[in-house]
Design brief:
Layout lengths: L12 H14 L11 H8 L9 H6 L3 H11 L2 H4 L5 H29 L5 H5 L3 H9 L6 E3 L2 H14 L15 H28 L11 H18 L1 H5 L11 H11 L6 H23 L10 H16 L1 H5 L22 H30 L5 H17 L6 E3 H9 L6 H17 L8 H10 L2 H4 L4 H8 L1 H39 L3 E6 L6 E3 L12 E6 L8 H11 L4 H40 L8 H29 L20 E5 L8 H16 L3 E5 L3 H9 L12 E2 L2 H10 L15
Parallel strand pairs: 5-6, 6-7, 7-8
Antiparallel strand pairs: 1-2, 3-4, 3-5
C-alpha cells in the first residue's frame, strides 16, 4: 500500500477544506486479509517467546571485553576525550569555562552563606565536584557546582542541628562563631558524603528511574517554593538583623514574622549596600539582554559587583563606620581531607536521601534538555553515579552537597561550550582563586552576596506563571504544583517533598481508578472505532457492543471496570441473572410437584388392581399370582421410567432461553472488549475477565476480546485464563476482526445450546 502526501500554501479556510478533502481521497487504501483471531495470528506470524541470555548472567560474566566495557561505561571521559576535536572545540570550551568560572566565584561565596557556612567552603564546592564530574559525567553542557536550592536545603540542616543558641558564650552571651562554623562544616561535609553514597548506590543498581516519580509540575512547584525559602533566608543579611534559628514545619512563617518585628533594628548601611548592589546587578542583566546579539560573552555583572563592592568596602571602611557585616577571614590554599563523622549518620540519613533525590532530579532534567537540543544521549544511571562521586569525594574535602545550576549551564552552552572541558577549565580557574586570590575578598559585604542570590532567583520566581499556563493546560498538574508549593512552604523542604511525592502518587492511583470508559461505534466506511459520545458520525454496529477503557485494568480498578461495562451496555445484568435464576427455581419446583402427583396416581392405580384380584376362584390362584406378579413388575417399571423421565426433565429448565422464560433479551448478541490499553494483567484482572464472560453468557451474550498486546497474551496464558470455554478463538487481532466475526456468528446463526445456568 502507498500513501502520497502533498503540501502547499493554504490562503483561505475554503481552500484548506477542499485541499484536505482531496488529500483524504488520494490517501484511500484497501487491505484484503483474512479475519484473524489470536490462534490464526500466532500461526500466521509464527509467534514464539523470545529467547536470550538472562541479564543477570551477563552481569556475572568475566572477560577482558566485559572489563573494558565496564570501565568505559563508568568512566566516560575515556570515550570522548581521545576523540576530542581540538581545533573545532577547544577555543569555545576555554571561553565557556572562563565565563562559567566568573559566575561560579560570586555564586560559590554567596551559596556558602546560604548553606550557613563560611564563604571559602563555597569555593571548595565549586572546585572538587566540578572536576570529578568532568571525569564521570555524561552530559556535555550542565555546570555542576553550588546551587541555591541545594544550599538552602543544606542550610536548613546546619541551622537546625547546629543553631546559634547552642554556641552562646557564658561570659558575654555572644555566639562563638569559630566553634559554630566548625560544627556546621562537619555537618555539611558528612551530609555530602551520605548524599554521595545514596546517589552512587542507586546509580549502581540502575535506580535512575526513581526521578520519574518527580513529575515536571512537582519539580517546578518545589523549586519555586525553595526559591521563596532562599529569598526569606537572605532577608537577615539584607537588613543586617540577627534572627533566632528556626527549623521544622512553619519555620518560614516564623522567620517572616520575626523579620517584620525586627525591621526597626535594621542597619541602614547594610540596607543601602544591598539595594545598590541589587540595582547594579539588575541593570547589568538588562544590558546583557539588550546587547545579547552584539556581545560575544555576557558582561560578568556578579564579578564586577563583587570586585567593586570589595574595593568600596575596603576603602570606605563599611564595617567599622556603618556596621556593615563582611565576609571576614578567607584562608588561602586547599583544606586537607577530613573523614566524615559516623555519629551523625543517624541524624542525617533521611535528609541526605531527600537532598540526593532532589539534586539528581534537577541535574538529570537539565541534562536531558541539553542532550535533546544537541542530539546526544544522557545515561541517567551514570549521571547518578557521577553526581554521587562528586558529592562523596567533595564531602571528604569539606564540600557541601551540590547539583547543577540552570543559569551557569545556560551560560556554558551559549558561550560556545561543547564538552565538560569547559567545566574542567572553570574548576582550574576556581583553584587559582582559592590558592592565591581568595583572601582579597575578606572585606566583601555579606549584603552584596545576599543581593546576588536574590537577583539570581529571578528565573525560579518566574515559575509562578506556571499557575496560569497549567490552569489552561491541565488542572490536575496545577493541583500537584500548588500542593507541592504549599507543602514545601509550610512544612519545610524535606517534609514538603515527601508530601508532594505521596500526593502525586495518590493522585495517580485515583486517576487510574477513574479512567474514561466508552462505547465505541464504527466510523462510516472504515475499520476505525471511536467513542460514540465524542464522534457524532460514529455508529454502533447493530447487535454488537464495543467497550473500551482508557486505562489498564488491575486490582485497583477491576471492579469499577465491570460496573462501568454493565452500566454502559444499558442492561442490568445482575438483575436479569437474578430474575432468570428465580424463574428457573420456580420451574424446577413445579416440575417436581408434577412428578410427585404422577407417581401418586400410578401407585393408587396399581393398588386398586391388586385388591380386585383377591376374590378370584381357587383354581385360578396360580394364574392370578403369575398375572399379579407381572402387573407388579410392570408397575415398578413404569415408576422407574417416570423417575428417569423426571430426571431428564430436570435439565429442561436449564435449557430454557430468556425469551421462553418471559424475560427481555438484550438488544445485542455480542460484546467486544477493546483491551488495547491493557499493559499488564494481575490475578484480579483475570478473575474479573472470567466473571464478565460468565455473566454475559448467562444473558445469552457472547463475549470477545480484541487488540491485546503480545506481553498481555503471554500473561493470560501464564495465568491459565484460556480453557475449554474461553479459547484464543475469542481473542482477535483488532476490534474490527472481532465485530465481523460476531456478526457472522450472531444469535440467529448459532446452533449451539445456551450456556447452562448453575443454581
Amino acid at each position: 500500500m502507498g500513501l502520497s502526501e502533498t503540501s502547499g500554501p493554504r490562503d483561505t479556510q475554503v481552500l484548506l477544506a477542499t485541499t484536505e478533502t482531496m488529500e483524504l481521497r488520494r490517501r484511500d487504501y484497501k487491505v484484503e486479509r483474512p479475519l484473524l483471531n489470536q490462534e490464526q495470528l500466532e500461526e500466521l506470524g509464527r509467534w514464539g517467546t523470545a529467547t536470550g541470555t538472562p541479564q543477570w548472567r551477563t552481569w556475572l560474566q568475566c572477560s577482558h571485553a566485559r572489563a573494558r566495557a565496564l570501565l568505559l561505561q563508568h568512566l566516560p571521559v575515556l570515550v570522548w576525550l581521545p576523540r576530542y576535536p581540538v581545533r573545532e572545540w577547544l577555543l569555545g570550551d576555554l571561553l565557556s569555562g572562563l565565563s562559567v568560572a566568573i559566575m561560579q566565584l560570586p555564586q560559590g561565596l554567596a551559596y556558602a552563606l546560604l548553606a550557613g557556612l563560611p564563604p571559602v567552603f563555597g569555593l571548595y564546592s565549586s572546585f572538587y565536584p566540578v572536576f570529578i564530574y568532568f571525569l564521570f559525567g555524561t552530559s556535555r553542557h550542565i555546570s555542576v557546582g553550588t546551587f541555591a536550592v541545594m544550599s538552602v536545603m543544606v542550610g536548613s540542616v546546619t541551622e537546625s542541628l547546629a543553631p546559634d543558641e547552642a554556641f552562646l558564650q557564658a561570659s558575654n552571651s555572644t555566639v562563638d562563631e569559630a566553634a559554630r562554623d566548625a560544627a556546621r562544616v562537619q555537618l555539611a561535609s558528612t551530609l555530602s558524603v551520605l548524599v554521595g553514597l545514596f546517589q552512587v548506590g542507586l546509580g549502581l543498581v540502575h535506580f535512575g528511574f526513581v526521578v520519574t516519580y518527580l513529575s515536571e509540575p512537582l519539580v517546578r512547584g518545589y523549586t519555586t517554593a525553595a526559591s521563596v525559602q532562599v529569598f526569606v533566608s537572605q532577608l537577615k543579611y539584607v537588613f543586617g538583623l540577627h534572627l533566632s534559628s528556626t527549623s521544622g514545619p512553619l519555620s518560614l512563617i516564623y522567620t517572616v514574622v520575626e523579620v517584620c518585628q525586627k525591621l526597626p533594628q535594621s542597619v541602614i548601611g547594610t540596607v543601602v549596600t544591598a539595594l545598590v548592589a541589587g540595582v547594579a546587578l539588575v541593570l547589568v542583566k538588562l544590558l546583557n539582554d539588550k546587547l545579547q546579539r552584539y556581545l560575544p560573552l555576557p558582561l560578568p555583572g556578579e564579578l564586577f559587583t563583587l570586585i567593586g563592592a570589595t574595593g568600596i568596602s575596603y576603602g570606605v571602611g563599611l564595617k567599622h563606620r556603618f556596621g556593615v557585616d563582611v565576609v571576614g577571614y578567607i584562608p588561602a590554599g586547599l583544606a586537607p581531607p577530613v573523614a566524615p563523622s559516623p555519629q551523625l549518620f543517624a541524624e542525617l540519613v533521611g535528609k541526605a536521601f531527600t537532598i540526593a533525590v532532589v539534586g539528581f532530579a534537577i541535574a538529570i532534567s537539565l541534562g536531558k534538555i541539553f542532550a535533546l537540543r544537541h542530539g546526544y544521549r544522557v545515561d541517567s544511571n551514570q549521571e547518578l553515579v557521577a553526581l554521587g562521586l562528586s558529592n562523596l569525594i567533595g564531602g571528604i574535602f569539606q564540600c557541601f552537597p551540590v547539583s547543577c545550576s540552570m543559569s551557569r549551564s545556560l551560560v556554558q552552552e551559549s558561550t560556545g561550550g561543547n564538552t565538560q572541558v569547559a567545566g574542567a577549565v572553570s574548576s582550574l580557574f576556581i583553584l587559582i582563586i582559592i590558592v592565591k586570590l581568595g583572601e582579597l575578598f575578606q572585606d566583601l559585604p555579606k549584603a552584596v552576596l545576599a543581593a546576588t542570590i536574590i537577583v539570581n532567583l529571578k528565573g525560579m520566581l518566574k515559575q509562578f506563571t506556571d499557575i496560569c499556563s497549567l490552569w489552561k493546560a491541565n488542572r490536575v498538574d496545577l493541583l500537584i504544583w500548588l500542593v507541592t508549593f504549599v507543602a514545601t512552604i509550610l512544612l519545610n523542604l524535606d517534609l514538603g517533598l515527601a508530601v508532594a511525592v505521596v500526593f502525586s502518587l495518590l493522585l495517580l492511583v485515583v486517576r487510574m481508578q477513574l479512567p474514561h470508559y466508552s462505547v465505541l461505534g464504527q466510523v462510516p466506511d472504515t475499520d476505525i472505532y471511536r467513542d460514540v459520545a465524542e464522534f457524532s458520525e460514529a455508529r454502533e454496529v447493530p447487535g454488537v457492543k464495543v467497550f473500551r477503557s482508557s486505562a489498564t485494568m488491575c486490582f485497583a480498578n477491576a471492579e469499577l471496570y465491570s460496573d462501568a461495562l454493565k452500566q454502559r451496555c444499558g442492561v442490568d445484568v445482575d438483575h436479569l441473572i437474578s430474575q432468570k435464576k428465580k424463574l428457573l427455581r420456580k420451574q424446577e419446583l413445579k416440575l417436581k410437584r408434577m412428578q410427585k402427583e404422577k407417581l401418586k396416581k400410578q401407585t393408587a392405580a396399581s393398588t386398586c388392581t391388586s385388591a380386585s384380584n383377591v376374590n378370584t376362584s381357587d383354581g385360578d390362584i396360580e394364574s392370578n399370582n403369575v398375572e399379579g406378579s407381572k402387573a407388579k413388575a410392570s408397575a415398578e417399571g413404569k415408576l422407574e421410567d417416570t423417575a428417569a423421565h423426571g430426571q431428564e426433565d430436570g435439565k429442561a429448565p436449564d435449557l430454557l432461553t430468556l425469551k421462553a422464560l418471559g424475560l427481555s433479551q438484550p438488544d445485542f448478541h455480542s460484546l467486544v472488549l477493546d483491551l488495547g490499553a491493557l499493559s499488564f494483567v494481575d490475578t484480579v484482572c483475570l478473575k474479573s475477565l472470567k466473571n464478565i464472560f460468565r455473566d454475559f453468557r448467562e444473558i445469552e451474550v457472547e463475549v470477545y476480546m480484541a487488540a491485546c498486546h503480545t506481553p498481555v497474551v503471554t500473561q493470560l496464558e501464564a495465568g491459565q485464563f484460556f480453557d475449554a470455554s474461553i479459547t484464543k478463538q475469542h481473542l482477535f487481532a483488532s476490534v474490527h476482526d472481532a465485530v465481523i466475526f460476531a456478526l457472522q456468528h450472531s444469535r440467529s446463526n448459532q446452533v449451539s445450546s445456551v450456556l447452562v445456568t448453575k443454581l
